[in-house]
């Protein structure tokens, strides 16, 4: 009997998708907002870390020292992800990498900076979140809400059989729209903050440091 009545409902498959979206919406929004806040917190922690800024200044000074006398010896900035290159750069006469040398100098001369990583409470969790996945999730939520609106419009011609459905869906869409607008604004903010971390440019600086200059520096240490 239930299925016979169900068959009388226009576009029953579409309505079932509406119910599925409505049921999952709360938890989906909550988890997505949590991920956005995690990435946002990590960006703020990195950008506002005074200890990291001091370390970055020393790295810039070190790079300019190594490149002294060349066109790359007066850089005023570098890409944040270029820090990873420090572990790959070593002198031809030494097993010590530039990262190891930097850590050695920091530990000896400015030990207070060595624990800078303790300021990054959200960073580890943020590294497990891909920005591409966030973009896909945001798009899925927006498209899901759009399909709900389309079904609401289509159900206006269903007659009394969809009256309760239309009323419930209309109320839900009103609430969901507010949530999605808020979420979209947060997503845009997180995107700008994440992009801002990559805006410290080399301005023509080559991250590959000359072995000859690096050899002399490591020998002096």
UniProtKB/TrEMBL annotation:
Q: What is this organism's lineage?
A: Eukaryota, Viridiplantae, Streptophyta, Embryophyta, Tracheophyta
What the entry lists under Pfam families is as follows:
FH2
Coiled coil (UniProt feature)? 131-158
Q: Which family does it belong to?
A: Belongs to the formin-like family. Class-II subfamily.
Instruction: Alphabetically list the UniProt keywords.
Output: Coiled coil
Lipoprotein is among the record's keywords: no
Natural source organism: Hibiscus sabdariffa (roselle)
Report the leader peptide range: none
Q: Which residue intervals define the domain FH2 in the entry? A: 1-221
Q: Which InterPro entries match?
A: FH2_Formin, FH2_Formin_sf, Formin_homology_domain
Q: What is this protein called?
A: FH2 domain-containing protein
Record Gene3D superfamilies: Formin, FH2 domain
